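Note to self: keep these together.
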Amino acid sequence: MSIDQLLGLITGILFGFFLQKGRVVRFDKQVGAMLLKDMTIVKFMLSAILVGMVGIQLLADASIIALSHKAMNLGGILVGGALFGCGWAVTGFCPGTSLGALGEGRWHAVFAIAGMVVGATVYAECYPFFKSTILAWKNFGKIGLAEVFGISPWLIIPIFWAGIIWLFVWFERKNL
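Structure:
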């Protein structure tokens, strides 16, 4: 096992631990998020994004990693997002929470995991068709907000932080 694989394994175990401790693998939290009545999962994800955006930018600035955006493909985002949302709504799990639930011994998560594997397989097998249809709708290329606005990511990061902290305060005031 390489050091990268070992670090990936450790990171995955820690992420699963925090998913479980944050109770985001619980079905009631999943349903609450779908009904916009419990923002625990949203707060968890946004917290991870805030910490990650700073860490990734620091690593990129130190030339430890090289950032490489995925293409901003409108068809892929719309159809993929809709399928992801439908799968989450039907099963009550996203990929991370399904594995966390399985780790807790909730065996019904196997059905969600199997559905994700089948979906990924179907996508891989049908990729040539998707490439000429859905993925051909509109491709904006490899862009990020910094490139769109022509400014440093370090100007965007504090704006995101301020917006998300304001959102957290609003959630708390609404008891979400």
